[in-house]
């Protein structure tokens, strides 16, 4: 089924989402919503060093591509929230976020630019949703697992890597669904996110480019990961995004650049069949390893599996899940169909 544009008098500016979150302040979702005026959009564009696209829009869209736009908006709003909070901490000298005099101004300017660029990404996705008669995605209350600048940059690098993988999946969906007119703007965002990732890696004193072929992901893995950051009860609209989510998979061992046995845990649920550890890395076939259960408690199972780094040069982002099938799997989509727990994310280099 393809959806036609809704009867809106114009595309710009439509009801958009703005999220202002100050450190240590808890606000309700309603407090964080407002429509951007044309002058506010112009200000965001100036800080972002570019404009919202004004090219012609498609005459219709498939339902699957519409779900992808919802996920993109959800992800971009999450990123706006993260960088808004990071900027607050940096500019208010919050403990753990102090900057040196020699590069502090440059880092703040870069994060401010990224924040506004992500705001435009969110605006673009939500405006397309409204154009096709679908409610825009609203912000949530979030919990970010960081307490200092080093952790914040690492986390930003991680979710950017995951997003770069998921946008590969969305590109395939746009193509398979006949929504090819959306691919050009999407790939422009992919390139921009890649530039961000290089910046985050340089701050961490890593090489700016991670691997020659970035790891593939799928929408369901990103949706599951993003929802883990949302404070329960703060987002009533997430059920409108019709994507599957999975039970958590928690790494106990932090893998490094060597083959080793890693430990992890997952909820002790009613499923008693065999489970398999699956690793998705770069553009290679997913790797399947047997797992060994070490301990079963009331609420969690502790287990282990081989992390086969040496034989597979598993640098960059690796996505790990537990599946109910040993495969073989041809790609990340096939892995997601059999996933019960995950994803867990591993970054080497």
Structure overview:
It holds the Pfam family Ferritin_2. Residues 1-27 form the signal peptide. This is Sexual development protein (LsdA). By secondary structure, the protein is α+β, with helices and mostly antiparallel strands. It folds into 2 domains: 2-240, Ferritin, CATH 1.20.1260; 250-348, Sandwich (Immunoglobulin-like). It contains 8 helices and 9 strands. Strands 3-4-7-6-5-8-9 form a 7-stranded antiparallel β-sheet. Strands 1-2 form a two-stranded antiparallel sheet. Helix 1 (38-48) crosses helix 3, helix 2 (63-91) packs antiparallel against helix 4 and helix 4 runs antiparallel to helix 5. The radius of gyration is 20 Å and the shape is globular.
> Looking at this structure, what is the CATH superfamily of the largest domain?
Ferritin, core subunit, four-helix bundle
Q: Please identify, by name, the CATH architecture of the largest domain.
A: Up-down Bundle
Sheet-strand content, in percent, reads 15-25%
Q: How many β-strand stretches?
A: 9
- What would the CATH topology of the largest domain be? Ferritin
Number of domains: 2
Shape: globular
Query: Are there runs of 5+ residues with pLDDT below 50, and where?
Result: 6-34
Mean model confidence by pLDDT: 90
Helix content: 25-40%
Radius of gyration: 20 Å
Give the number of helices. 8
Organism: Talaromyces rugulosus (Penicillium rugulosum)
Signal peptide: 1-27
Pfam families: Ferritin_2
Protein name: Sexual development protein (LsdA)
């Amino acid at each position: 089924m393809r959806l036609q544009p809704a009867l809106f008098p114009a595309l710009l500016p439509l009801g958009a989402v703005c999220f202002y979150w100050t450190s240590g302040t808890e606000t309700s979702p309603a407090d964080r919503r407002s429509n951007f005026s044309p002058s506010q959009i112009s200000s965001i564009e100036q800080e972002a060093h570019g404009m919202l696209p004004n090219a012609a829009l498609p005459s219709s869209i498939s339902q699957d591509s519409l779900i992808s736009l919802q996920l993109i908006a959800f992800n971009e709003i999450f990123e706006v929230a993260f960088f808004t909070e990071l900027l607050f901490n940096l500019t208010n000298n919050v403990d753990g976020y102090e900057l040196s005099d020699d590069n502090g101004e440059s880092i703040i300017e870069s994060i401010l630019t990224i924040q506004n660029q992500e705001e435009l990404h969110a605006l673009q996705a939500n405006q397309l949703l409204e154009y096709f008669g679908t409610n825009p995605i609203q912000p949530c209350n979030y919990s970010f697992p960081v307490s200092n600048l080093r952790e914040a940059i690492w986390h930003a690098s991680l979710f950017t890597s995951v997003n770069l993988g998921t946008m590969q999946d969305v590109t395939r969906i746009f193509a398979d669904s006949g929504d090819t007119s959306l691919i050009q703007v999407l790939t422009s965002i992919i390139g921009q996110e890649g530039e961000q990732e290089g910046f985050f890696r340089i701050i961490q004193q890593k090489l700016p480019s991670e691997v020659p072929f970035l790891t593939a992901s799928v929408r369901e893995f990103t949706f599951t990961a993003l929802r883990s950051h949302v404070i329960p009860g703060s987002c009533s609209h997430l059920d409108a995004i019709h994507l599957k989510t999975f039970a958590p998979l928690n790494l106990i061992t932090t893998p490094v650049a060597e083959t080793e046995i890693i430990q992890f845990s997952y909820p002790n649920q009613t499923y008693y069949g065999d489970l398999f550890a699956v690793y998705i890395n770069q553009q290679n076939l997913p790797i399947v390893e047997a797992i060994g259960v070490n301990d079963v408690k009331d609420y969690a199972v502790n287990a282990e599996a081989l992390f086969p780094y040496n034989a597979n040069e598993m640098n960059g982002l690796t996505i790990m899940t537990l599946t109910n099938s040993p495969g073989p799997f041809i790609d990340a989509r096939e892995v997601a169909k059999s996933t019960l727990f995950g994803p867990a994310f591993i970054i080497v280099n």
